[in-house]
Amino acid sequence: MEQTSSKFNQLPKSWNLVFNLILIVLCVVCIIPIILVYAISFTSEASLSAKGYQFLPSEWSLDAYRYVFRNGDQILQSAYVTIGVTAIGTLFSLLVTALFSYVLSRRDFRYRNVMAFFLFFTMLFNGGLVPSYIVNTNVLHLADSFWILILPYSLSAFNVIILRTFMQQSIETAILEAARIDGAGEWYIFARIVIPLSKPGLATVGLFTLVTYWNDWFLGQLYITNPKLVSLQYMLMKLQSNIDFVTSNATSATNNMLMAQIPAEGARMAILVIVLTPILCAYPFFQKYFVKGLTIGGIKG
Asked: What is the annotated localization of this protein (predicted)?
C-alpha cells in the first residue's frame, strides 16, 4: 500500500524537466530587470540619452552615485537610522507577533475568539490617518522620536494570522502537554519549545517585517523633522522628488544648467540599487528556513 502511494505521488522525469524549465524561465524573467537596473546605474547620462538602456553600457560612469552620495554625512546618518530601525523593529515585531500568535493558537485559551475578532476587525476597519496622527503626536508624544519609526509597524494582523496558522499546523498539542506534565510553565514552553519549532514561520514573517521597515519613508515624512532621525528611504525619496521637479520644470536657463549637472536616469536607478541591495543580501539567510518546509515539529509515528 505504501509503495503504491509512493508511486502515485511521484512525477515522471519528463514532467520534472518541464517544471524545472518553467521555473528557470521565471527566474530569468525576475533577474533580468534587476541586472538592467544595476547596468543603468553605472551608465553615463550621455550614453543613456543617445543609446537608451543597455545591459552592457557603452560608457561606464559613477556620476549617478557621486550625485546621490554628495551629502555623504547625511546619508551615513540616515543609513544608521534605517539599519537601527530595521534591526530593532524587526526583532521587537517578531516578539510581539509570536506572543500574540501563540496565545491565539492555544485552543484552551478562554478569550481566544474575542481577541481573534478584534485582530481581524483591524484588517477591515481603521481609524484613519488623522486620528492616528493625533494619537501619536498629542497623546503618546512620539513625534521626532526613534520609536515613532518602530511602533506603528510593530504588529500586523496579517502576520499574526500567518504565524498563528503555522503554530497550529506544525506544533503538535502532544508536545505542549508533555512539557506541561513535566512541570514546564507557559514562558518556558514558549521560549524553549514554541519558538525553536516556529523558526520557518518566524523567518517568513521576519522577512515581511524587515522589508516593511527597510522600505518605509511615510512615517518619516509625517512625524520626523529632526535631520538626525531622517531615514535613508525618506532622504532618497526627497532626492528623487527634487530630480523629478527639476526635470518637469526644465524650461528656464537656470534649470537647464541644473539638468546638465544631474544624471537623472542614472540617479533614479542608483537610488533603487541602494534600497534593493541590502534586501537581496538578507534574503538568502531567510531562504534556508523556507526550504526546510513545514515538517519541523511533526511527531513521527
From this structure: Cell membrane
What share of the chain has pLDDT > 90, as a percent?
19
Query: What domains can you pick out in the chain, each with its CATH number?
Result: 31-61 (no CATH), 72-234+263-290 (1.10.3720.10)
> What value does the mean pLDDT take over residues 225-229?
88
Q: Which residues of 130-162 are buried (b: 16+ CB within 10 A; e: fewer)?
A: eeeeeebeeeeebeebbebbbbbbbbbbebbbb
Q: Are 84 and 146 in contact (CB under 8 A)?
A: yes
What does the alpha-carbon distance between residue 241 and residue 254 come to, in Å, rounded to a whole number? 18
Q: Could you say which DSSP state residue 11 is in?
A: P
Contact 264, 44 (CB under 8 A): no
Query: pLDDT tens digits, residue range 50-81?
Result: 888 888 888 888 888 888 888 778 888 888 99
Strands (E), the chain: none
Tell me if residue 115 falls in helix, strand or coil: helix
What pLDDT score does 275 carry?
84
In the chain, count H helices and then E strands.
Answer: 16, 0
Model pLDDT for residues 233-254, shown as the tens digit of each residue = 888 888 877 777 666 765 554 5
pTM metric for this prediction: 0.80
SS3 state of residue 82: helix
Which three-class secondary structure state does DSSP give residue 43? strand
Task: Give the span between the Cα atoms of 267 and 258, in whole angstroms.
Answer: 14
Spell out the long-range contacts of 52-61 with Cβ–Cβ below 8 A and sequence spacing 24 or more: 61/263, 61/266
Cell of 63: 556620476
Mean pLDDT computed over 209-225 = 90
- Answer for the pair 255, 246: CB distance below 8 angstroms, yes or no: yes
How many residues in total does the chain contain?
A: 301
8 Å CB contact between 170 and 197 = yes
